[in-house]
Write a structure and sequence with these properties.
This protein is α+β, with helices and mostly antiparallel strands. It has 2 helices and 2 strands, in the order E-E-H-H. Strands 1-2 form a two-stranded antiparallel ribbon. It is elongated, with a radius of gyration of 28 Å. The protein starts with 41 loop residues before the first strand and ends with a helix. The mean pLDDT is 79.
Length: 132
């Protein structure tokens, strides 16, 4: 038996690229309000809450409770990601790297979207806490 036979053993390769630690969907987007505007910022008018009070008798005055109005301002931001492949890279690989890179870039943008929602939620919670 020849000692060099293992040099010609057939190796198999997966045709699909496995994406590591990728989030395929934005998890928080369904819980947000979205507005598409062509401006530097957008104002969201808000109305706070009041508690109902007991009526203490007949023909008493209706209480004046002064509902709190406030405004939240949202400022759009732009995110981007990118990578480069050469034509010879595609020829030398068994998989097309461009489709997988495009998919990974989409995942990165979705994570960035969720990160921005979390950041704004934390900032809003701090502002709300300070106003108490």
């Amino acid at each position: 038996m020849s000692a060099s036979i293992p040099n010609v053993y057939v190796q198999t390769y997966e045709r699909n690229v496995r994406h590591l630690a990728q989030q395929g969907i934005t998890r928080l987007l369904p819980w947000t309000m979205q507005k598409s505007v062509q401006s530097e910022a957008h104002n969201w008018e808000r109305l706070g809450t009041q508690e109902a009070v007991d009526k203490t008798g007949r023909l008493v005055d209706t209480p004046e409770q002064d509902y709190p109005f406030s405004r939240r301002v949202s400022v759009p931001t732009t995110k981007h990601t990118g990578d480069t492949t050469e034509q010879e890279d595609i020829v030398q690989m068994l998989v097309d790297p461009n489709s997988n890179i495009a998919q990974a870039q989409g995942y990165a943008m979705k994570r960035a979207h969720d990160d921005e929602i979390i950041k704004k939620s934390v900032d809003s919670a701090v502002v709300s806490f300070r106003s108490l």
